[in-house]
Amino acid sequence: MMKNVHTQRGLTLVETVVTVAITSVMILALGNAIALFYKNNAYTFAQAAEVAEAREGVTLMVRDIREMTYADDGAYPLITMEEHQLAFFSDIDRDNSVEFVEYVLSSTTMMKYVYDATGTPPVYSTTTPDREFIISNYVQNISQATSTFIYYDVNGMPATATTTVTDIRYVNVQLIVNVDPIRDPGEFMLRSSAALRNLKDNL
């Protein structure tokens, strides 16, 4: 009578090496895919967060510009009107005391500086700001040769070299934001505008 004999044998050395190699390649590929996924998502989230912050900053700038008014010492509301710098007087905290406000794009950072009036009669010292805020990071206006502030006169015409601060009645604000300029999804342009409601036309 014949008997069936079942024998069990393990993997040969070659089979073991091949199995380990294939498993290692698969784990490495999966690890790289996961790392790339998180890296791309992190960039997307960072870009979205920065755009949201910049949007809030533009809204704040426009609000301050709209409330531009004469200083506590009687100075004219608008002081500086440059491509990447705007300085003016405004009661930004609604405390019936007018502050001197300066928005400056420094490299890729939009800054806000606030100077309070002191003394009687009131005096504005612009040596050191009383408060300063970062409005937005990763601003690409300078590298993109795009104005941050655009000015218009009472007739709605863009400011020229001969336009003075007393001619300005309207300011356009625009920020180009991009966390990483060499990567997608690319840059975002945020725009808004403000009419200077408290200026007199009979000067």
Describe this structure in words.
This protein has 203 residues and is of the alpha+beta class. The protein has one domain. The chain has one helix and ten strands, in the order αββββββββββ. It has one helix at residues 13-66; strands at 78-81, 85-90, 99-106, 109-115, 117-118, 123-124, 131-136, 149-153, 168-177, 188-195. The chain has a five-stranded antiparallel β-sheet, with helices on one face. It has a three-stranded antiparallel β-sheet with strand order 8-9-10, with helices on one face. The longest helix has 54 residues, at 13-66. It is elongated, with a radius of gyration of 30 Å. The relative contact order is 0.15.
Brief summary of the model shown:
With 203 residues, the protein is α+β, with helices and mostly antiparallel strands. Helix content is 27%, strand content 29%.
Topology:
Blueprint: H1 13-66, E1 78-81, E2 85-90, E3 99-106, E4 109-115, E5 117-118, E6 123-124, E7 131-136, E8 149-153, E9 168-177, E10 188-195
Antiparallel strand pairs: 1-2, 2-3, 3-4, 4-7, 5-6, 8-9, 9-10
Q: How many domains comprise the coordinates?
A: 1
Number of helices in the DSSP assignment:
1
Lateral strand order in the biggest sheet: 1-2-3-4-7
Please outline the major beta sheet: 5 strands, antiparallel
* Low-pLDDT sequence parts: none
Radius of gyration (CA) equals 30 Å
Overall pLDDT metric: 85
Specify the structural class.
alpha+beta
Q: Helix share of residues?
A: 25-40%
Number of strands: 10
Oligomer: single chain
Head-to-tail CA distance between termini: 124 Å
Shape: elongated
- In terms of DSSP E residues, the strand content is 25-35%
The topology string of helices and strands comes to HEEEEEEEEEE
